[in-house]
Amino acid sequence: MSASFLDPNAHAALVARIQTLTPDSQRQWGKMTVGQMLVHCADQLRVSRGEKAVTSLRIPGFLKPLAKWFFVTRLKSFKPNMQTLKELDSQVGMTSPTTFEADRQTLLDLLNPAKYSPSGVEHPVFGHLSHNELGEVTWKHLDHHLRQFGV
């Protein structure tokens, strides 16, 4: 089992890493600024919560278990410069950044484990994600982007 942002210890470690970011944090790869990365990660959580629609990718229901199996179960970590959904792309469809501090706080608010149902979520790409699956795939995504900025 991978780390999960829903686990209190892993959650505290992620929050501490997010808190070490500064507006001047430099990326190790990719195109996003640190502020864009905060919004990108918040948008990923908005998608998972059903608060941000995904219209750029339509996966037939019968293929969602395969996508989930690969990205949630088999993929150990995200690779630098992986393609993202249009709705999460900083150049195309991502929510516009505001200020560094406000965007960081938005991400931290969305990371509150109490906001997530023990029954999981209905994800537009993966179908039903259990509480554990949501926690693990979100942790992998956040870890990937925090490593992108050296934390």
Automatic annotation (TrEMBL):
InterPro entries registered for this protein in UniProt: DinB/YfiT-like, DUF1569
Gene3D superfamilies reported in the protein's UniProt record: dinb family like domain (1.20.120.450)
A Pfam match: DUF1569
Protein name per the record: DUF1569 domain-containing protein
